[in-house]
Structures are given as structure tokens and as C-alpha cells.
Amino acid sequence: MIAQHRSDVVARAGGRGRVLGAVSIASVLALLLLLVSFGSELSDSAGLVKLRNAMLLQAQAVDADWTPDSLPDGFMVDAGEPIALYRDIVAQNGLVVPGDDWATSLAIGRHMLIDGKRAEGPIQGDLAETYRRIVERGEGYCGDFTDSFAGLAAVAGVFVRTWSFSFDGFGGHGHTFSEIWDRQKGRWTMIDVFNNFYPEDSAGNPLSATTFRQALLEGRKLRLVPVDESARPGFVHEEKAFAYYRRGLPQWYMWWGNNVFEYDQSGAVRLLGEGHRALEQFGAILSGVHPGMRILYEAENREAREALYWMKWKLLAVPALALLALIAWIGRSRAARGV
User: Fold this and answer.
1) Is the pLDDT of residue 337 over 80?
2) Could you tell me the residue ranges of all domains in the chain?
3) Residue 33: helix, strand or coil by DSSP?
4) Residues in Cβ contact with 257 at an 8 Å cutoff, skipping those fewer than 6 apart
5) Could you tell me which CATH number the domain at 62-296 has?
6) For the residues of 214-260, what is the DSSP string, one character each?
7) Could you tell me the pTM of the whole model?
């Protein structure tokens, strides 16, 4: 009887072990197939940006009709303490124009722009390094400019939100720019410091980002006004700028937060920032300090946003499959020992 009982136990353990072994192998194979499916995204920086955006993608569409006094759900307002360098810059350079948010924003933009040819390449540093390399060397990509501008504007008391658009299905080929809340006029106003302009209508009124976008769609007459007339323009010919922005119209999205100081001071960001930029941003996502992104829904971007949602689910499946494979492997090992 005892021998028969032991035989039954061993048989059941063996059967359970085979099942768990099969589950472990299937999970590993599925995981490998998923990773292979990300091959094109993992091979270049623009693809890595698309993977990041998929992780940060929120289900809600962009609703731009809100103010800082009535923040939408989930918008991440900066809880970090402004760094001393940015406080000093704003104070020492007199960048605050009392009672005039738009004039303050223009003063910040002019301060960031330098005359002469810009150096190419992203900065990929913290806010202090980003600022210094922008104003001292003329370096930086559009994202470096929007981060530094948002930090300086926050110190100056101006609320900023950041828009982006892409040409490659919400990946890394695209552009990003700023929009400030003008308390005196009670409206949003767009400013693209990196390309050294803000848009005006035919009557000379500065435009919000969405009004600028609609004007481009309708072919209305616009003017791009230099933030700093002495600095190099992003586009020598206005038509090239209009064509560039028109090409990105189907893929606009907003970063759902302006917490640049909180991001900058995150322990995970600083630790992983010593390595690759992608690792830094992954640390920001894990620690909850990276703003999400919300897409401006259009019929033209339905296919691209659905593909991005599918990529998000595949990314979420990676840790789930890895955990399942680990649990099954541990269970198989225990079954093999008769535990």
C-alpha cells in the first residue's frame, strides 16, 4: 500500500511537472517571439521612442480645452523643487515681466537663443547641463529646449504644456514645442523656441497650438514671428516651416504633465541616466514621474494609434510572460523533487 501510494504521488508529480515544463517552454517561446517582433524598434533611437510612447500611451484622447485653474484628470503638475540654477537665471537676467505672462515667455525664449549656427545632436543631460549647453554652445534638440523652457517658465510663474507631432506613427521622427497659459488674456499661446518663432494670424494675434493647427488645415494666411530677430531662424523660408508642420498634422499629441523638476530629481532617473537615455526614461516610467501622452484623435491617425495601442499590450505581455515562465519553471523544479 505504501509503495503504491508513493508510486501514485510520483506519477502525479511527474504529470504536473510535465505540464508546468510545457507551460514554461511555451511562455519562453512566446516571449522570444514578442521580443523579435520589436526588432525594428530596438534597432534605432526613433524606434525606442515609439516603444517609450507606447508604454506611456493613455486611453483618453487629448482635450485641449482646459486651463491651469481647472486641470484635467491625471495631468502631472510639478511637485519638485526648482533647482537653484534656474532660480538664479530668472532672477539675474530679469526674465519676469510683471503682469505679463506672454512678455515673460518671450524674454525666456530670447534668453535661450544664441546667434550663430547651432551644434547638432541631443544633449541627454539633466536640466542644469541642458540649459548650459543650450545657451553656451547652441546645442540641443527640440525636446531639450521644451524641457529647459518649461523649467524656466515655472520659476517665472508661467504655466506651460508641451505638444508633439510625429511623421512615423508616433515614434521619434517628429517635433515638440511649447504652449503657455497667458493669464492676462485668458488664453493659450504657442511658442516654438527651438525653431525661433510663434505664429500670428493675419490680424497680428498670437495663436494657440490648436488654432495654429486648424489654420494650417484650412490654408488660412499666417505669419511666423521670430522670438529673437537676432538669432538664427529654424526655417529660413516660412513655406518650409508650414510644409513641415502640415506634414505632422495627422499625428499630434500632448504630454500629460509639465513636472520637469520632479523628473530631474528622481533617484531612478539620475541613477539610470548615467547609462543610456532609454534606461533613464524607463526608470522615470517605473518610478511614476514620466508624464503620459494623449493623442489628438483624427480619422487620419486611427491606424497609427491602434498600432501603438497594440504595441502597448505587447509590451505589457513581456513581463507577464516572463513571470509565468518563472513560476512554471519553479513549479516544475518542485514537482521533480516531489515537493
Assistant:
1) no
2) 1-55+319-339, 62-296
3) helix
4) 75, 76, 77, 291, 292
5) 3.10.620
6) HHHHHT--EEEE-S-TTSPPS-SSHHHHHHHHHHTGGGEEEEEB--H
7) 0.89
